[in-house]
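As a representative case, we now present a protein record of this kind.
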Amino acid sequence: MLKNITLSADEELIKKAREKSAFENTTLNATFRQWLAQYTNSFFKNDDYDRLMSSLSYVNPGQKFDRDQLNER
């Protein structure tokens, strides 16, 4: 279910955003919904990353490697 919200922004910024959306053959509303989905997904991806790093905290190579060591095959 879609829900309406009200946002405030500079008039010129809204005009430019509408022009860009029209150039991309979409609407400002659809562009905002897409941005909102990406915005919230990036938050959860960061949370997933933090959980992964925490789960790997036991890994300890015992030393720092220099560039040549890291590039050895």
Remarks:
- The chain has three helices and no strands.
- The CA atoms of residues 54 and 66 lie 24 Å apart.
- The mean pLDDT is 88.
- Helices lie at 11-23, 28-55, 67-71.
